[in-house]
Specification:
- By secondary structure, the chain is mainly alpha-helical.
- Helices cover 69% and strands 8% of the residues.
- The chain contains 7 helices and 3 strands.
- Strands 1-3-2 form a 3-stranded antiparallel β-sheet.
- Helix 1 packs across helix 2 and helix 2 crosses helix 6.
- The chain is globular and about 60 Å long.
- The two termini are 25 Å apart.
Length: 159
């Protein structure tokens, strides 16, 4: 939240240098927070936390994957992932099995119960979130936005 207050101060100064990125920064952060509020509230109404949903959605329609790959494909931090997996395993929605190819690796996959959860909650959540995008953006807009966001993300990844 400290960064959000810096953005607020930037707005108060009215961007005296005319920096274009400052005009993008606040709407980007506000959009992110608005998305998270809608996303999280709906996921909780489905009986999951956002990290649990992320894991179940990532594992859905797969044969499972190593923990390392799951960590890379989700937005769940490595430090949080173990606890999320523990809770999902306790609920009977995932299972961890030793990899046949690499003894040091564990494969995480949905159980039949986890598959039922995925088949129930994933389409509901997509149907819930999709109209927010479609009322604001055309398919072409979404394609351009994706390209721009990926380009911006790559910029932050470079040293």
């Amino acid at each position: 939240m400290r960064n959000a207050s810096r953005i607020h101060r930037t707005r108060k100064t009215e961007n005296p240098d005319g920096e274009p990125f400052l005009l993008v920064l606040r709407p980007l952060v506000e959009t992110y927070f608005a998305f998270l509020r809608k996303d999280d509230r709906h996921i909780r109404s489905l009986g999951l936390t956002s990290p649990q949903f992320d894991v179940i959605a990532t594992l859905g329609d797969t044969q499972g994957m190593p923990c390392r790959e799951l960590s890379e494909k989700t937005l769940v931090t490595k430090g949080t992932l173990t606890g999320v997996l523990d809770r999902l395993e306790t609920r009977g929605e995932i299972e961890r099995i030793p990899s046949k190819e690499d003894r040091r690796s564990t494969i995480v996959r949905l159980t039949p119960k986890g598959t039922r959860v995925f088949q129930k909650v994933f389409p509901k959540h997509i149907s819930y979130m999709k109209p927010y995008f479609e009322q604001a953006l055309t398919a072409r807009d979404m394609d351009q936005l994706r390209t721009l966001l990926l380009r911006l993300k790559e910029s932050f990844s470079q040293k």
